[in-house]
């Protein structure tokens, strides 16, 4: 199984989050294209609505994309998101994981984040990876593990 690569990103408040800070806990690290879009909003709200159950199971959640801290702050405030969103400014982690690539949106090709969710074990092993996530059943797929 693959280990989560080393990273250092800021959350919406400018606080540094590193992979070392995830050690000892199970973590859902989900990558999504951008704040304030319909599917991304649905996905964030879905995680927030299930946060109590996830915490009960000892699982923490982080969302990741290339949006600014300010945009993340607005998104969290507007939709009452209950967890930190990380800024992958130069898409370093998303590139390392093969999540940032050419994709077709409305028939137009452009580079971007392909919606992907990782379940990270306490030892930073990627225990489950779901590519091209379907938001509707993402949690069931993850929690089968």
UniProtKB/TrEMBL annotation:
Pfam families: AhpC-TSA (PF00578). Keywords: Antioxidant, Disulfide bond, Oxidoreductase, Peroxidase, Redox-active center. It comes from the Bacteria. PROSITE patterns: THIOREDOXIN_2. GO terms for molecular function: thioredoxin peroxidase activity. The active site is at 40 (cysteine sulfenic acid (-soh) intermediate). GO terms for biological process: cell redox homeostasis; cellular response to oxidative stress. Monomer. Belongs to the peroxiredoxin family. BCP/PrxQ subfamily. Thiol-specific peroxidase that catalyzes the reduction of hydrogen peroxide and organic hydroperoxides to water and alcohols, respectively. Plays a role in cell protection against oxidative stress by detoxifying peroxides and as sensor of hydrogen peroxide-mediated signaling events. This is thioredoxin-dependent peroxiredoxin. It comes from Macrococcus carouselicus. The lineage of its organism: Bacteria, Bacillati, Bacillota, Bacilli, Bacillales.
